[in-house]
Amino acid sequence: MRLLALMAILASAQAGQIMAGPAFELFARHGDLACPSRKLRTITPGDLSWEQETFEAQLSPKSRKLLARVNQASTRCAGRDGLSCPTSATLDAMARAKMLAAFGDFACQHPQP
Questions:
Q1: Do 36 and 104 meet the contact criterion of CB atoms below 8 Å apart?
Q2: pLDDT tens-digit map of 26-48
Q3: Sequence-separated (6 or more) residues with CB below 8 Å from residue 19
Q4: Which of 11, 17, 59, 96 is the most exposed place for a label (fewest CB within 10 A)?
């Protein structure tokens, strides 16, 4: 019975896109500490993309331009389907622009869709 439950968990994890990478790990660790009930470590790429878009919309024009300039999602993810790559690339850009902690705070406080 335990083996069957474990197989079901693994199958469901493999069915969806999985977020990974150094910037995602920093984001997830921030969420683990700042708002563990939000379970940001298990956020789907679609929900993470929505959080990113909402966060970017509230940035100043100068900060939006900086983020757009350092975001390599369009070239890094060209020809790839899904949201894992662009959301990871955007997290990397937020880290380079020194916005990752602010985004983590935002995601902790912002209600999910």
A1: no
A2: 999 999 999 999 999 999 999 99
A3: 28, 43, 45, 48, 84, 87, 88
A4: 11
* Torsion (CA) 105, 106, 108, 113 in degrees, nearest 10: -170
- Which residues make Cβ contacts (< 8 Å) with residue 92, sequence separation at least 6? 21, 22, 23, 72
For 3-16, letters b (16+ CB in 10 Å) and e give eeeeeeeeeeeeee
Q: Give me 68's structure tokens.
A: 């757009």
Structure tokens at 1: 């019975």
For the entire predicted model, the pTM comes to 0.80
